[in-house]
Amino acid sequence: MAGGWTNDGAVQEQIDSSIADAIQRARSQLPSGESLMHCQECDAPIPEARRKAVVGVHLCVACQTEHDKEQAKFSGYNRRGSKDSQLR
């Protein structure tokens, strides 16, 4: 059932679009290219098993963990869905 000026299925289209955008953003952040032999942050050697498991890896496990923690601080999403949560 459409409400107001929206078409039938408009809510589902918005959900699908949001999911597609999130998938595209996640894929764009995946490493690509050739894996490095040494970490670009601390110059520690990257084990061969990690280079094979993660194509295009540029960071050692320790530096990647720190990088992931920094990324988790700001997700860019208003998960609570309330206006005041955007102000925090």
Can you characterise this structure?
By secondary structure, this protein is mainly α. It has a domain at 33-73. The chain has 3 helices and no strands. The protein has helices spanning 10-28, 48-53, 61-73. It is elongated, with a radius of gyration of 19 Å. The model has no long low-confidence stretch (mean pLDDT 81).
The mean pLDDT is 81
SS elements, strand count: 0
Unreliable runs: none
Largest sheet: none
The fraction of residues assigned to DSSP E strands is: under 5%
Instruction: Sum up the overall morphology in one term.
Output: elongated
Order of helices and strands: HHH
Distance between the termini: 35 Å
Alpha-beta content class:
mainly alpha
- What would you report as the Rg, rounded to the nearest angstrom? 19 Å
Number of helices: 3
Approximately how much helix is present in the residues? Answer: 40-55%
Quickly list its features.
single chain, 88 residues, mainly alpha, 3 helices, 0% strand, elongated
Q: In summary, what is this structure?
A:
This protein is mostly helical and 88 residues long.
